[in-house]
């Protein structure tokens, strides 16, 4: 089963302008970020926590961003 990360992608653009800037802020390569966004690599709990912190998303509101 695949997930849609459209809402997550929109939030990244809203807060950082580009996925590349967001990847840099996370300290990961743009390739790694892209692989997660396409479902090639799964998100870890640590990823979800870090991404939510940078994107100003409460963990209680994370489901629509990561599990749609």
UniProtKB/TrEMBL annotation:
TM helices/strands, residue ranges: none
Residue intervals of the HTH cro/C1-type domain: 18-62
Superkingdom assignment: Bacteria
Coiled-coil spans in chain: none
A molecular function GO annotation: DNA binding
Pfam families referenced in this protein's UniProt entry, alphabetically: DUF739
InterPro entries, alphabetized: Cro/C1-type_HTH, DUF739, Lambda_DNA-bd_dom_sf
Protein name in the entry: Toxin-antitoxin system, antitoxin component, Xre family
Lineage: Bacteria, Bacillati, Bacillota, Clostridia, Lachnospirales
């Amino acid at each position: 089963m695949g997930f849609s990360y459209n809402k997550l992608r929109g939030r990244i653009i809203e807060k950082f302008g580009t996925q590349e800037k967001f990847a840099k802020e996370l300290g990961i390569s743009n390739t790694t970020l892209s692989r997660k966004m396409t479902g090639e690599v799964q998100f870890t709990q640590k990823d979800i926590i870090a991404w939510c912190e940078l994107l100003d998303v409460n963990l209680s509101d994370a489901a629509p961003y990561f599990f749609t």
